């Protein structure tokens, strides 16, 4: 009963309620927030990211083999070093012995060279003596030939003179015989004078013939006194002297070759001595020529290492580098440091613009804190990445381990690169830009 009564009352009020007055809503007026714009200069900041890396990574290796006999305190993982600082030392005894041995060989070769020079001087003197003897023998032979020729000529002249005088004597004898026969026929031989009988003419011709005969005998005697074998002996002596001279010259050639060989051996020994000295110095292993830090140590004292064995790896700590990719369209807002150092176009070098190095701020999250480091864009890589068509810029941060916290190699960082400054531009909030890059202006 009670439920039925309640339902009836509710139905009555629902059907007999007053109708609410309908009102027309006021027109909607759009809300507009205006911003007064002012021209200003706006520096562009280009975002990027990358991983910190050392500007140099070096494998420290010895140039010689040996046993490690000492290690410096800085030779440990994380140890800092100065340029060229000693890191460890190898045993140099064998190399020092090599130096002593090479110097001893040099001294021995030089002593032998001096002896060869003395022998060479002796052979030189022997050649000079042989040449003098040969010249003397040749002169003696020429003199003998001349003298023998002179004596032979004298004999020939004497023979000719004797023959002439003998012919004259025979002529006078014939004239005498003819005159006597004629006088006998005339019967006046007894009364004839000696001149008519040709007695003085015959006597003179006979005396002349005897004189010429004496001259011929003297020439023949002088010629006979010359040794028949003298010329042959002189020729034989010349042959012997020539043989001796040839032998002396050959002996002179041999020391000359020996001297050249010894000089070559001395140069080789000196080179080996210098190499041994260099090897002895190379037993001291020094750090690379930069400020750096040991990142990995692979050997310890007492180990025997070979030439080329990697003893440790080190990185440079004078500055760190970060490869930062930049898309091609953003490069228009950045002056990338580029400087030609050599070109055939000298005019291009003259008109080359001064190089600027954009600033860069690196940020990294270490633990709960965010840290920043300041650096610069030092250069760009030589070519675009073929896959992403991005150009990698190289940022440099000086003294990365001089900061707190240090900028360690391998750390991932975000970069904010300061690009070009846009002059006389208007800055708008991003939400005021409509679709299609449109902006509503009130004038």
From TrEMBL:
Name the source organism: marine metagenome
Name this polypeptide is given: Membrane fusion protein biotin-lipoyl like domain-containing protein
Q: Report which residue ranges the record marks as coiled coil.
A: 99-149, 206-279
Query: Could you confirm whether the keyword Protein transport appears in this record?
Result: no
SUPFAM superfamilies noted in UniProt? HlyD-like secretion proteins
User: One MF term in GO for this entry?
Assistant: efflux transmembrane transporter activity
One cellular component term (GO) for this entry is: efflux pump complex
Keyword annotations:
Coiled coil
């Amino acid at each position: 009963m009670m439920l039925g009564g309640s339902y009836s009352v509710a139905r009555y009020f629902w059907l007999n309620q007053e109708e609410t007055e309908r009102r027309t809503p006021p027109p909607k007026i759009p809300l507009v927030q205006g911003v007064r714009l002012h021209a200003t200069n706006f520096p562009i900041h280009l975002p990027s990211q990358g991983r910190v890396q050392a500007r140099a990574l070096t494998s420290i290796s010895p140039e010689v083999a040996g046993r490690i006999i000492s290690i410096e305190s800085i030779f440990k993982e994380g140890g800092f070093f100065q340029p060229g600082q000693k890191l460890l030392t190898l045993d140099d005894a064998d190399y020092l012995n090599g130096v002593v041995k090479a110097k001893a060989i040099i001294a021995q070769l030089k002593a032998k060279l001096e002896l060869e020079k003395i022998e060479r001087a002796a052979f030189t003197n022997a050649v000079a003596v042989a040449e003098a003897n040969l010249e003397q023998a040749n002169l003696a032979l020429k003199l003998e030939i001349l003298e023998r020729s002179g004596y032979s000529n004298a004999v020939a002249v004497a023979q000719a003179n004797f023959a002439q005088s003998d012919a004259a004597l025979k002529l006078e004898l014939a004239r005498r015989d003819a005159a006597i026969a004629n006088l006998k026929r005339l019967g006046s031989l007894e009364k004839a004078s000696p001149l008519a009988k040709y007695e003085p003419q015959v006597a003179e011709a006979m005396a002349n013939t005897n004189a010429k005969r004496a001259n011929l005998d003297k020439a023949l005697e002088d010629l006979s006194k010359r040794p028949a074998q003298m010329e042959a002996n002189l020729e034989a002596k010349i042959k012997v002297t020539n043989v001796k001279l040839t032998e002396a010259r050959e002996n002179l050639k041999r020391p000359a070759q020996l001297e050249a060989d010894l000089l070559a051996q001395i140069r080789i020994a000196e080179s080996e001595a210098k190499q041994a000295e260099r090897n002895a110095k190379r037993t001291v292993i020094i750090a690379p020529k930069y400020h750096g830090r040991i990142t990995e140590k692979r050997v310890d004292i007492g180990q025997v290492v070979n030439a080329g064995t990697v003893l440790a790896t080190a990185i440079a700590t004078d500055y760190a580098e970060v490869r930062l990719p930049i898309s091609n369209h953003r490069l228009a807002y950045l002056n990338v440091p580029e400087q030609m150092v050599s070109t055939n176009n000298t005019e291009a070098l003259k008109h080359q613009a001064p190089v600027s190095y954009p600033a860069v701020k690196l940020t990294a999250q270490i633990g709960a804190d965010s840290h920043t480091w300041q650096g610069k864009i030092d250069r760009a890589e030589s070519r675009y990445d073929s896959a992403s068509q991005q150009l990698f810029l190289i940022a440099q941060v000086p003294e990365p381990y001089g900061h707190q916290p240090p900028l360690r190699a391998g750390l991932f960082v975000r970069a904010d690169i300061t690009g070009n400054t846009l002059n006389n531009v208007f800055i708008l909030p991003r939400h005021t830009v409509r679709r299609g890059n449109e902006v509503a202006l009130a004038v």
